[in-house]
Design a protein that fits this description.
Structural class: alpha/beta
Strand order of the largest sheet: 5-6-7-8-9-10-11
Strand content: 15-25%
Amino acid sequence: MKHTSHRRMEVIRDRSVERFIERVWSQVLYQSGFWERKDVRQISPAEFLRKIEKARNKLSSDYLRTVEIWSKAFGREAVHIDFFDRIHDDPEIYVNGILRHIGAATPWALPPNLIRKKVYATNSLVKHEREIPEIVQWYIADRMVEPTERLNELLEGQVSSWVDEMRTIRGKTRLSWRILGELNRIVLSVPERLAYEAYHAVLDLRLALRWRTLRKSYLSAKELVNLAGQICELAKKAGEEILHFYRNGVVVTRKEDTSPLTLADRASHDFLTESLRSILPDTIVISEESAEAERRPRAEAERFWLVDPLDGTKEFIKGTNEFTVNIALIEKGHPILGIVHAPALDLTYYGVREGGSWQAIGCEPARRIHTRPAKSPGMSVVASKDHAGPMVEQLLSRPPAPHLQSMGSSLKFCLVAEGKADLYLRDLPTMEWDTAAAQCVVEGAGGGVYSDLSYNWSGLIS
């Protein structure tokens, strides 16, 4: 099943106004007959009207407010709306709707042992039954028709029948009902209305505080796609820094592990670490060229940038054009955004977790890319020019008549992502910043990295 942290589901409990009104009435009976231990047969219609305005009863039927909160927080496209009664009427359709929304496999068949008879809790908790008085039906419809109209607009007509039925019920009015309704709304239910508004305000404040906290660690798919555009521009500017050295001669020094380091690595590193911090100020940046002390805070970070300012330094030195700038955003140990930019080729790949992957060449509009079904025989396999590993030759002997491609840097992943290769093989250790961005591009394109790659663990080797 796909990771679904950015998807939310809201269940609207009733598919008809009759059931909706029954639900509001059920809340009132529960409040009176269970909590207050009253005989519901002896309660006057006027008292029932006051109880409809009580904070708990009113909030439980305020679907508009609930949908608006979640839609504002996560985006309307991330909120799945369904009707609770469908669990009873057609549970398979209900569950399959949820599965489609979160991107899981469908269809799902309901196991016979899961079929249960619907139980109405109110009937078992309240000692006495009572039919809904006509004035109560009218009052509920009269009070709820306006928010239901707004809810119908938000749901693009899904509850238009509710609106029509409520208008019909509201039209069956009597002068005495209207007088009592207005008296209840303006005078008798003032304490209940004030309690509801206060309760509403406290909930809104709590949600706002929780949302501020959540926003620090949550980015929706839409926000990630927008963020990807900004990061692609940074990668291109870092690429311009690199090309300045690429075209004017390469000066090579050696790091402690004897791997090559150029002035281009350092220039790209300096530009990206400063720029990325300005985009997400609370998110730390870890680069291949970061000092050890700068890397330590990532152990406590749920989200951080992981950067290889120049992937494929050997290709850069040899002048093959197959070097890249890699930028990944890691969240809870997994890349959720990845950019791979090849400055000498003027070629950019970027991917978003569950949002897709794209390729952009020069100034042309980006195009969506997808992996392809593997061909057999004739599977196209890509391997590293310098780091294939001793097991790769053995693995290549398994698929019939494989076609071997060789490529430097993270571009190997990208060949798989855009459907030009079927498989990338490597059995030697690699560093986190070498794989994170490209892994996200492959996964966004529909592929997968089938190895125990994890990010933000005790070491930096994947």
